[in-house]
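yo, D-2-hydroxyglutarate dehydrogenase, mitochondrial is done. seq:
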Amino acid sequence: MGPRIYSHDTPVQFYSEIKKRQEVSTKTERGRSRVLGIIRTPPPAWRRARVPRPSLAIRTVQSITPLTVRTFSASSTRSDSRQIKFTSDAYPNLKRDPKFAEISAEDVTYFKELLGSQSAVIDGVTTDAKDDIEPFNSDWMRKYRGHTRLVLKPKNAEEVSKVLKYCNDHKLAVVPQGGNTGLVGGSVPVFDEIVVNTSRMNQIHSFDAATGVLVADAGVILEAADQYLAERGYLFPLDLGAKGSCQIGGNVSTNAGGLRLLRYGSLHGSVLGLQAVLPDGTIVDALSTLRKNNTGYDLKQLFIGAEGTIGLVTAVSIQCPPRPKAVNVAYFGLESFDQVQKAFLAAKGQLSEILSAFELMDGGSQKMVIEATGNKHPLEGEYPFYCLVETSGSNAEHDMAKLESFLESVMSDGIVADGVLAQDETQFQALWRWREGITESLSHLGGTYKYDVSIPLSDLYLLVEDCKARLTEKGLVGDDESFPVRAVVGYGHMGDSNLHLNVAVRQYSKEVEKAIEPWVYEWIQKRHGSISAEHGLGVAKREFIGYSQNETMVKLMKQLKNLYDPNGIMNPYKYI
Ligand SMILES: Cc1cc2nc3c(=O)[nH]c(=O)nc-3n(C[C@H](O)[C@H](O)[C@H](O)COP(=O)(O)OP(=O)(O)OC[C@H]3O[C@@H](n4cnc5c(N)ncnc54)[C@H](O)[C@@H]3O)c2cc1C
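structure:
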C-alpha cells in the first residue's frame, strides 16, 4: 500500500465534547478508560461519530499491534514440501496423458542454449536439482504438488514464443506460472509438465500520466506495480492479500477480484490490452492502450481468466485510477448476519461514491487470526460477525463527514454493536490485516478446504452455517486432535456477494473432502450461485464446472481450447 493522507483536522469542540462524555461514562463503568483494552492514554485527536449511546461508541484506534506478515514467495514457504502429497496420488483418477513426450537431455540442451543465462533454467533432468525445483512444484496452500524436472524462466515474449513453439512441436506439456499464489492448484504441474515461470519478465514499459494507462510485463509483482503508480499519484485497480508475491500476468490469467472490486470493477473492464503467446509460438499483440476499440471480437477477454490454458500472457496494459487522497477504514462488530446486510445497505446508500471496500469476517475467522498471530483483537467484546469498511476519496473533510454520519446512523439504529476507526497509516494497515491475514493464518494452522463462491447476498452466510452443521453431524468437527476439522469459517468480499467458505483441517483427508463435495456445489447450484467467484478452476474445481455452466457453455469453451491449443499442451489436467 502506498502513502495515504489522513484527515486529522476534525473540529475539536465537537469531539472533545463527546470524548468527555465517554470518558466519564466508561470510567464509571469500568474504573478506567474504555477506549480500547490496549489503549493506555486517550488519543490526541478524536475522530468519532456523534454517538447517542456511549457504550456503543466507535473509537479511534490508538495502538494496534500489526500482524506479522509473511512474505509470500514460492521459495520461502516450501521448506518442508516433502510432506505435501503428490496431486497424482491425491487425485488417482488423473492419469498422465501418454500423448505428451517425456523431457530428454536434448530438450534441456535446446532450452539452455536458447535462454542463455544459468538462472533461466533449473535443470532437474541432467542434474540433481530437486531442492531448487521443489518450490515450483508445490502450491501456496501446500495442497498440490507436481513432478516437474524442468523450470524455464524466459525474459521476453520472443523467448516465450521459442519455448512454446518447441514444446508444441515436441508435444511437451507446459504450466505457465507467475507468483504461484493461486488457490486452486492451477499454477503447479500435476505430472512432469515443464514450468514456464514469468518472474524474469518484470519490466514496466510505460505509464501515461494523462490517461493513467500502465503497460508492464506479466512478471511484475502486483505490489511493485502499485508502488510505481503510487509515486505518480495513481493506483493499481486491484489489491489482494498476496500482492507481495502475485504477478500481474497471474492476476489477469485468474481474473483476480480482490479487495476493491466493489469500487474499481473487474479486470475484464480495466485491462485495455495484452500481449500473449500461443502454443504454436504466435505472438498475439493486442497491447492496445485505447479505452475504446470496437474493431471486431474482443479477443483479449479470452485470456483474462483463462488460467494459462490457451496461451501465456507476457504483457498487460491497464487503466489505473488516480490514487485517492483520503482513505479511511472502520472495523465493526455486529450481532447477526441480518445486521451485516443492513450495514452494507446503509454503507452503499450513505457512502456511495467514496465506498471502496466492504469486507465480511465471521467470529471464527478472527479467532483463527488471533490463534495464528497471538495479536490482540481491536474490539473488546466478541461478536459473531465483523465488517471492515473502507472509504477512498479526494476530499478528506467531506469523506470524514460522510463516514461519521454513516457511523452515527448505523450505531443509533442498533445495526453496529461496536467499532474502531483507524487514525493513521499504521492503524489502517493493522485493521486491514484482520481481513487480509485470514488466508495466511489459516495456512499456518494446518490445511484448508477452500470454497470461493458467489451466492445471492441474503443466503451468503447460510452456506457456512449449513456446512458447519453437516460436518458436526458427521462427527468431524472438534477441538482436540482426534477430530479432522478444526473449524468452519466464512469471510469474503461482502460488497461483491463473494464468500470464502473455509474448512480448516488438521490435515487433508478424503473423509472430510467427501463430506463437503459435491454437497457444497449442489447447495450453490440450487441458489444459482457460482462455484468459483474469483479463484478460478485449476485442478480443484475442474470436474465441477457443470454446477455453474451449462452444457452449451462448456462445449463452446472446449472448442475454444482446441482452437487455440490443438495439442493440448497448455496447463493440461485443469480448467475444463
Ligand atoms: C493470501 C492470499 C490472498 C488472496 N486473495 C485473493 C483475492 O482477494 N482475490 C483473488 O482473486 N485471489 C486471491 N488470491 C489468489 C491468488 O493470489 C490470485 O489468484 C493471483 O491472481 C494469482 O497470481 P499469481 O501470479 O500468483 O499466479 P499463479 O498462482 O502463478 O498462477 C495462477 C494461474 O494463472 C496461470 N498463469 C500465471 N501466470 C500466467 C501468465 N503469465 N500467462 C498465462 N497464465 C498464467 C497459472 O498457470 C495458473 O493457472 C489470494 C491468494 C493468497 C495466497
